[in-house]
Amino acid sequence: MTTMRKNMFPPGLVNNLQDVLSKKGANKNEQKKQKDDDSTETSTSSSTAGNENDSSKPVVLVTNSEGVDSLGLIYLVQALVGLGLYNVNVCAPHSDKSASGHSLTVLETITVTQAEIEGATAYEVTGTTVDCVSLALSGALFSWTKPLLVISGINRGSSCGHHMFHSGVIAGAREALISGVPSLSISLNWKREESQESDFKDAVAVSLPLINAALRDIEKGVFPKSCFLSIEIPTSPKANKGFKLTKQSMWRSTPCWQAVPANRNPSAPHFMGNQQSLGLQLAQLGRDASAAGAARRGTTPRNNEEVESIGAAKSDNKAKKYFRLEFLDKETEATDDELDFKALGNGFIAVTPVSVSLQLESDVQTAASSWISGVLSGGAEQ
Question: Where is region (Disordered) located (predicted)?
Fold first, then answer.
C-alpha cells in the first residue's frame, strides 16, 4: 500500500500514518505476546462493563446507517476491540436507515436497547443514524462525556458526489462534527456482481492505519477541526493503490422511478381482502349502533348530555398508483483525477475532507449577490 501525494494530508497526519504503517508488524507481535501473557486479564477487560469503566483508554464511538448487525460495523468494532487501545462504544440504528440523510426523529419516542457486541458497550436505537450520534453525544446514554473520535461505517455502497447529501453514513459523521467531535465516515464501493462478505474485513484492515493516525493526531491537537473525512474504499480493498486526497464531485446515480403493478405491491387492495371484509363488517356494526342510538334518543328525554356515536368507516375508492425508486449507475467522462468517484474507480482509497461551513465560495457568493441585487432593484423600480 502506498500513500499518494505526500503533502496532501496535514503534516502531522502523514507522519503518524507512515509511523503506523512502518510499525504495524511490530505492534502485532507485541499485541500477540501481551495477549498470550495476559489472556485472563484481557478476557475480563473485554466485557461490556469493564470496557465502559476503563477511563484510561480514549473513547471511540462507532455508528452506521445499515443497522447494528451489519457486517461492516461488526468487523470494524471487533478490530478496534482487538487492538486493546480504545474504549469502544457503539450506538447504531436497530434497522437499515440508509439514504435517510440528516434526518432526526422529532415528536416521537425512540427505543434504546442494549446490543451484544463482545468487548464493546453497544446500543441499538429505533431511529436514524443522526439520532444515534446526537443521543450518544448528549450525555444521556453513556457514562463518558465526549468521545475522542466518531466513526460512521463501514457501509455497503459508495457515498461519493451528490450521494453525500442523502447518505446516512455521511450524516453520522457530519452530526459529530457539528457537535464539535472529530469524525470519519467509511464506505465500501460494493458491487453486486463482484463483492463478497470477506471484503468488509479487508476494508477494515486498510482503514485501521488511517483511523489510528487520526486518533493519535487528535490527542496531539493537530487533526483538522473544520472538517470530517469521508473515506471511500474501492471494490477490491486488498488491491487498492493507496490513499488519495480527493474533492467531492458532482457525480450521482440516475434516479429511476419504476411503476409497480397493484398485484405485486404488498399494500395493494387484493392483499387486504380479509382486512377489508372485517372493516366493512365493523363499519356496518357502527352504522347499526348509531341508528339504535338515534332511535333511543328520539324516545328518551334529553339531559344535555353529549353522546358520542360510532362513526361509519369511509371506504376509499380512489385509484392508487405504486412506485419504487431505483438508482442506475451512469457512465461519466470526468477528467479530473482528484474527484472522489474518479479516484475510487481507479482503485485508490479516496479520502475527501467535508466541511459544514456555511461560508460560500467567492464566485458563488458573487453570482448570487448579483442576481439578488438585480431582482430587488427591478422590483423597487416597478
Answer: 1-58
pLDDT band at 4 (very low <50, low <70, confident <90, very high): very low
Q: Report which secondary-structure segment, H or E, holds 88.
A: strand 87-93
* CA distances from residue 12 to 47, 216, 217, 227 in whole angstroms, order as listed: 34, 9, 7, 16
100-111: per-residue pLDDT in tens? 778 788 889 999
Q: Which CATH architecture has domain 59-255+342-355?
A: 3-Layer(aba) Sandwich (3.40)
> Do residues 251 and 160 lie in contact, with contact meaning Cβ atoms separated by under 8 Å?
yes
Q: Which helix (H) or strand (E) holds 15?
A: helix 11-22
Q: What whole-number distance in Å separates Cα of residue 34 and Cα of residue 28? A: 10
Angle in degrees, CA 205, 224, 73, rounded to 5: 30
Residue 146, helix vs strand vs coil: coil
The C-alpha cell at 170 is 455521511
Domain boundary assignment for the chain: 59-255+342-355
Cα 338–Cα 344–Cα 345 angle in degrees, nearest 5: 105
Give, in order, the Cα–Cα distances in Å from 258 to each of 255, 327, 374, 375.
Answer: 10, 10, 42, 40
pTM (two decimals):
0.67
Task: Quote the CA–CA distance of 68 and 132 in Å, as a whole number.
Answer: 11
